[in-house]
Task: inverse folding
């Protein structure tokens, strides 16, 4: 899965770079690309519910006095930090990932913000472009920008080092249900030197949540998953599997949360019994 996501991320960035270079040839100045154009350049898909126009690249200026309009682009004024980074020997600049994330906040849902931030902060070092610390610092250091309230609302639910967008959705789901703050991609080491990662874990009670994407339907992957789950259960772990159907609508989300609550409470009781008997 990681290789597929890496290829998608790289292709997305390359396509944006080609588009940006074409714009550079036409506008007659060094543009700073921003908003959803910058999100895509950093390898992440613009949220489906984002209301920004995606038919043209977006560029940004620090104030209205320096703003230069172009028929090939959509222009913005952004008075918070831009943190522009030069690319292609300075032919164009791109705002930082955390700036781009803040810029789309006004135009999409809080859940989409969580997914975008999770993709920026993913566990794969080849795709990771920022950290939770940088995102939090940007929001706190820039007290006035459109959409900041949404950013502040979702900050407590952001998770670093997830592997996929649905994992970020599940983290937000369980935290907003007051189930507690989990650890993402918790590593379990085995005696033979092998190890496994649990997508979303509560290590203190050996409880985990795993998102089952489409790639888990591959026969070889199914065998590997079964072996991994059995090894974890032998270690005393309870694992809940979540699929896309469980996240489809509010009813299905409430249903999977009820399952998680029930199995988590049972696991907590089993852990207490084990402590007493020991």
Result:
């Amino acid at each position: 899965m990681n290789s597929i996501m890496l290829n998608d991320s790289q292709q997305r960035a390359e396509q944006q770079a080609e588009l940006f270079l074409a714009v550079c040839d036409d506008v007659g100045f060094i543009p700073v690309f921003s908003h959803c154009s910058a999100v895509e350049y950093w390898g992440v898909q613009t949220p489906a519910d984002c209301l920004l126009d995606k038919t043209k690249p977006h560029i940004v200026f620090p104030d209205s006095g320096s703003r230069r309009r172009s028929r090939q682009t959509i222009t913005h004024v952004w008075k918070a930090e831009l943190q522009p980074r030069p690319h292609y020997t300075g032919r164009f600049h791109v705002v930082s990932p955390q700036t781009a994330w803040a810029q789309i906040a006004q135009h999409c849902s809080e859940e989409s913000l969580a997914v975008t931030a999770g993709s920026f902060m993913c566990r794969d070092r080849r795709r990771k472009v920022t950290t939770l610390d940088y995102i939090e610092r940007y929001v706190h250091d820039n007290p006035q920008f459109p959409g900041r309230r949404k950013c502040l609302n979702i900050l407590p639910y952001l998770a670093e080092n997830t592997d996929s967008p649905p994992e970020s959705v599940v983290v937000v789901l369980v935290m907003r249900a007051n189930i507690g703050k989990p650890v993402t991609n918790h590593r379990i080491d085995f005696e033979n030197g092998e190890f496994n990662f649990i997508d979303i874990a509560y290590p203190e009670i050996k409880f985990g949540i795993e998102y089952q994407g489409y790639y888990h339907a591959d026969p070889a992957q199914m065998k590997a998953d079964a072996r991994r789950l059995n090894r974890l259960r032998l270690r005393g772990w309870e694992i809940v599997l979540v699929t896309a159907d469980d996240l489809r609508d509010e009813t299905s989300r409430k249903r999977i949360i009820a399952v998680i609550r029930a199995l988590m409470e049972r696991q907590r009781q089993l852990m207490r019994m084990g402590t007493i008997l020991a």
Summary: The chain has two domains: 2-157, 165-277.
